[in-house]
Amino acid sequence: MTAVDQSERTAAEAAGTPVLQATGVTMRFGGLTAVNDVSMSVHEGEIVGLIGPNGAGKTTFFNCLTGLYKPTEGRVDLLGSQIPPKPRAVVVAGMARTFQNIRLFGNMTALENVMVGRYCRTGAMAFTSIIRGPKFRREEEQTRARAQELLDFVGLGKSAENLARNMPYGDQRRLEIARALATDPKLVLLDEPTAGMNPRETQQASDLIFKIRDSGMAVVVIEHDMRFIFNLCDRVLCLVRGEVLVEGTPDKVQSDPRVIEAYIGGAEDDEDEDGTAVDESDVSAASDESHESHEGATE
Q: Which of 27, 88, 96, 270 is 20 to 30 A from 151 (CA-CA)?
């Protein structure tokens, strides 16, 4: 059962126009219910975190939002209109995502990777592209310029001609975000953007997400780094066994005993989806620092 105070929800809705509204999303695979009646709203200029222990259904829910899965029940509205469960339609509607496992074109340059993301916003038809007509050349020039702007935005401006496979791991993560931004989204979904990063790279990722938010986009983040998520987000949803356990401010969620129990309540140490053990300190040790950091980031 979702523990959300009506006053908190009303305040969140007043803070901006809803960009994403997922209502009663359920995903079943045969007799297995991976996501059960999950609802979530995201507003303009808001960063929402999605947390939960191994097998909680976080990535499955992401896949339902982005059209990779067609929900068994429920609906997903973007900017007030229901979007069909097709990845391309979702991207064109204004939602972009990254993946837990990096999915770059390794033998293409950083600039070319970002340009690929931009082509959903171009209009040159096949014949014009084949003969490289004036419209194609004009759009290609505009696409290249926009891709370079986005590389500068994420801090990779000097790496434009580097092959993606030769770039450091943290830079590859930022490159994937730049490619998502090339689609001109209103909402960006990031699936474990700091997985495998060192502390310096994690801080860079945090700064970049705030920068994206400040540019006018809404952001939803799946992450297992509790310090990162509680210092970053305006609201946090905790999923357990495919259902929303609790939703609220970072302070409220991290102090809820059910969240701590969900992570460490098993007979054995739970593990994250990437095999990393979750420790109680990951949930509770951020308490002293998250309140100040969260307030400072949103001022």
A: 88
Letter for the amino acid at 236? Answer: V
Answer yes or no: are the C-beta atoms of 169 and 197 closer than 8 Å. yes
CATH of domain 6-94+186-298: 3.40.50.300
User: Is the Cα torsion angle 208, 56, 81, 68 positive or negative in sign?
Assistant: positive
Beta bridge pairs of residue 236: 49, 248
User: Which segments of the chain have a pLDDT < 70?
Assistant: 1-17, 121-136, 264-299
Q: Is the whole model's pTM more than 0.90, yes or no?
A: no
Every domain of the chain and the residues it spans? 6-94+186-298, 106-184
CA 145 remoteness from chain centre: 25
> What does 196-233 look like in DSSP terms, one character per residue?
T--HHHHHHHHHHHHHHHHTT-EEEEE-S-HHHHHHH-
CA–CA separation, 78 and 90 (whole Å): 9
